[in-house]
Every structure is written in structure tokens, then in C-alpha cells.
What we know:
Layout: H1 2-20, E1 21-22, E2 45-49, E3 56-58, E4 73-75, E5 86-96, E6 103-112, E7 114-119, E8 122-128, E9 138-142, E10 149-159, E11 169-179, H2 183-191
Antiparallel strand pairs: 1-5, 2-5, 3-4, 5-10, 6-9, 6-11, 7-8, 7-10
Amino acid sequence: xxxxxxxxxxxxxxxxxxxxxxxxxxxxxxxxxxxxxxxxxxxxxxxxxxxxxxxxxxxxxxxxxxxxxxxxxxxxxxxxxxxxxxxxxxxxxxxxxxxxxxxxxxxxxxxxxxxxxxxxxxxxxxxxxxxxxxxxxxxxxxxxxxxxxxxxxxxxxxxxxxxxxxxxxxxxxxxxxxxxxxxxxxxxxxxxxx
Length: 194
């Protein structure tokens, strides 16, 4: 009976993770997490800078890592063409309805070329260095810097100069949220009843 109670309580602690953080999406997907067709504007990621550009789901460049089945690369032009040198800042806004101190976000990302992840206007220390950030996915974990209510993730991607065939892009995939239960909830679950 005690094990059954512990299992039920553990399951109850997992449910708030789904409802406690909303608005997290991989790049290039619709509201149901289905990859968009190429050349369709991403409904979740905005291209904040340079001003006036849109983040489009794009067909991956031949040199880029595959996005898998649950994401698409996004970029400032509807097709993989030569993009200007400079910073491209993609924003994703999401909400936290639980204690932000208990939130952990994990994911994987790739960039063409280098990149940084910022949370709520602050550097997280998560970077992709060098000009070949597009060849593989890199894991990231965000443990702090969250706020109650609206939060903003910024993926700052730097496109190195090139003469032709030099697109820029961002791929974010396998986003997941973990809500770490408060220590008191774990203690209560462990006490059980006899």
C-alpha cells in the first residue's frame, strides 16, 4: 500500500510540469509540435534583430545537422541563401505558473555559425563557439534566472562573413521541462501512512 501511495504521489508531482510551464516549442513547429513546411513563418520564435525580418522554417543546408522529426531549422530568409554577416536574435516567450526556482529546462541546439543563449536579458553562459556550430547538436540545461509569469529566451546567432552560399540559421529541439518538487513534498511522500 505504501508503494502504491508513493507511486501516486510521484505521478502527481509530474503533472504540474506539463501545466506549470507553457509556450516552450522547438523551432519550426506549429502549436501541436508538428514541423512546418519550408518557407512558413515560425509562430513561436520571432526574429527580434535585425529589425523587420521574420523567422521562417527553412530547408536545412547540406552542411547542417538534421533537425529530426520534431523540429525545423529557422532563418531570416525563406530559403537557404546567402545571409548578411552579423547577429540574428531569435526570441521565444513562455510562461511559468509554478515556483521558478524549481524549473529546469533542457534542450539541444545548433547554430550557423556561433551562438549564445540568454534568459530574461541575462547571459546564461551557454554558447556555441566557432564557425561550425551547425554540424552537430549541443545539449543545454538552464537551471536559474527564471521568473514567475512571462519569460524570454533569446538565441543570439552570429553569421560569419561569406561570399556565397552562406546562410544563417537556428535549430532548437528536444525542449523539455522538469519541475523539481519542493523538499517538503518529497518528505511528505516518504513518510507515507501505515
